[in-house]
Amino acid sequence: MTITGVHETYSSTSRTSYDVFLSFRGEDTRWTFADHLYTALVNAGFRTFRGDDGIEIGKSIKLELKRAINESKISIIVFSKNYASSSWCLDELVMILARRKRGDFRHMVLPVFYGVDPSEVRKQKGDYAEAFMRHEVQFKGEKCEARKWMEKLKRWREALEEVANLAGMALHNQADGNLLAVDTHNKLVMHQIIQEMGREIVRQESPKALGERSRLWNHEDSLNVLREKIGTRKIRGLILDTHFLKEDRAKGNDFGPHEESWSNKRKRYPFAFFSSLSVGIATKTSNEVVLEVNAFAGMSNLQLLQISNVQPCGNYEKFPKGLRWLCWSGFPLQMIPDDFPLDRLVALEMPYSCLKKVWNGAKYLVLLKLLNLSHSNNLYETPNFLMLPNLEKLILENCARLVKVHESIGHLESLIFLSLRNCQNLRKLPEIIYKLKSLATLDISGCINLENISAELGNMDSLTVLHVDGTRISQFLCITQEVKAWPLSVWPWQSSLRSCPETSRVSFPQSLVNLSLENCNLSDDSFPLEFGNLSSLRSLNLSNNAMYGLPNSIRCLSRLQYLYFLSCPRLKNIDCLPQNIELLMADGSKLLEKISFESQGITPGLRLGYESCLSLIEIAGQFKLEPLESVDAELINNLGLCDSKAVEKSPIELLSNVVARKKRMLCPQVLHESRMLSTFMRGSKIPTSFNHKNIGSSISFTTKPSNVYLRIQGLSVCSIYSFSNTPDALLAPSFYGDNWGLHTVISNETKYLKWSYCPQVFGIPGVDEDLLWLSYWKFEDHQLEGGDVLNITVSTIEAFQVKEVGVRVVYREEAKDKKCNQVTNLDDVQPIHPYGKAVPGCCNEDCEKCKNYPVPTNAASTRVIIIGTHPLNCTGCPDGYLVEHGTLRVG
Asked: The pTM is what?
């Protein structure tokens, strides 16, 4: 999600009762995104009007909406898939923009695109096109009334185009959750909305006198206030990061190569306590800004201070005494001075500091809850914690020279979070750490020289999160048999690894919810026995370990939801994955061949990651690659290959749209996908069994009427394609984007139904070589009948050309002896293929999506069923009401 600007209009007078007017489509976001956003706005102190909440009983709804819009400082419009289907939402939008056009000073318009692209809104494409189609056919009346309705539609379209051209926020595939936090990928979520609105309101406090504002977040403004010493008691928060200053100037002057950009540095260390702006990294070689400490003297009410790469000059006698949160990145001193005011601090953050020692003796800081000294490479010991009774979070990660944790850490009775990640010189932990009664999160990942982990770990009943990646913990666990050194291991301490007894002394506490054991030298014959006892475990990371398959003990974890097998170099199979798993990540496991599930077929809602799994040939229920020679003769016949022995069997290049995105040379394979069957092979002639043929990329015909005992079961489609010209083949064109590889579209013009199929794997022809693509489509009853007019089109990227298309109608024989009107089909005895069902058709409003669509009775109401694996914003599919049943979308 990104913000590129905020659009505002101006006027001299405006009465405001609300800070924010929130416009959204209730059925899309009422209980998810919009609800979270509303809660976040209210919690941040913004008086927010939300549709049904603010309207008094007995008052005109439209009048109340108009009043709320006119009396709000800011309008946030959440554009979701069904926003345009609501006439109320569109009327709200017109009213919002009408106020903007009047030049209202205090009104700011902020569009948020939730799951839709701004271009869909601007041009009314996709769901927005469908909504307007319904609006257009909705009104039937006198010409005068119809004209008014069409004028309203015109205003709606103009409003959508105007607002989509404003800079705003686009949210694609962002999970709902804590809207005031940073997600696991360091992507800033919805607090940017709140931040932008808050900044505008603060700017209006004092447009010209910077020292009179309550908060200063612009780095140039902050630097000017400090250099000119014009700060006042009105300032409560200030941010100054000189990396932003240097980056901006470097961009402006274009001096050529310079140090790593701040936009990259910010990704490495997020802060979200006061604002979304992270802090920089200070080094002795960087050009620091020198400031006199007494520049802060006038800011007696300063509570929040975030500075980076600043060299202080002078004593701290007049430094603000009421600071509650201090983040000083790159603090340049070797110890915090004794006169530094720490007494009122709730949070003290000094990452990337030059500290060798934090302070002398013990400091009584009764309010301190957060202490962050991460990346302080000169720090060799922690401070004395004896007089920090309320400390809850201690971050010491990446302190490269840290060798000692003070024994007084055992007195931190309120400590709930402790990170010592990547403290590579730390050799032991005080035994008293394992006695902490409130500790919920312990991270010692990357502590590669840690010599021992106490058996008391198993008694830490408060511990819910434990990360021990890259440590020697496998030496101390209760295991199935001897731990053997893993030859593929890259641990620095591998040379000292020795076999251990059958049982060791360390176990995991049963309270664990999140456990990470990445890169811990675990294998099938050295896996912890007691995993099955971790009944509360929900997330388990076993990445970069040496298992061949899924350990049996994991199948017993009924609450496990998230499982990680990233870059496991020996992993070959993940069998019988339990139904409770919601996320499986196996990216980079290059030998992985198969993923199967405890239940038949893929678990609904399961999210899978298998990028760069070069050997993957099957995900049960989703796809399977199988050599043509191994496939049942009935399936081969359905594809139209009556004589499989005569098929060209030499290897061809296959490319997956999802699995590895790398070419593989394989003999002809049959691709089983949900509801589809297809194969690729060398050849320049349509097989003789295909009785409908046409030169080019499409073919049209009318199916023959069925007799009493023969019904249409499906279609076999064959196409011949090659590179458009030799340079295309030699330049190795990209096969990714909004229309990768190949599409086959079958259109039943009689029933206003279309099917669009894009295979997960497709063949790459060689230079001056033709390939055949054959696919089999099994249809449900009455989807395809005698007398239907069909049009079949095979489309592809520009690098390919489709030379010829052939179609074969496949019939099924119905039993002549019908008892009780029951029909026995030939395929009842033998299923078409293990991924089984017929291609879906019109679902008669059985699903949430389809119930909003008109019944396909004319060209304008054509239903398009998406099958196979398609790009996120696929351009190869035809126009119409798109329906996805089990479709895989990849972006």
From this structure: 0.72
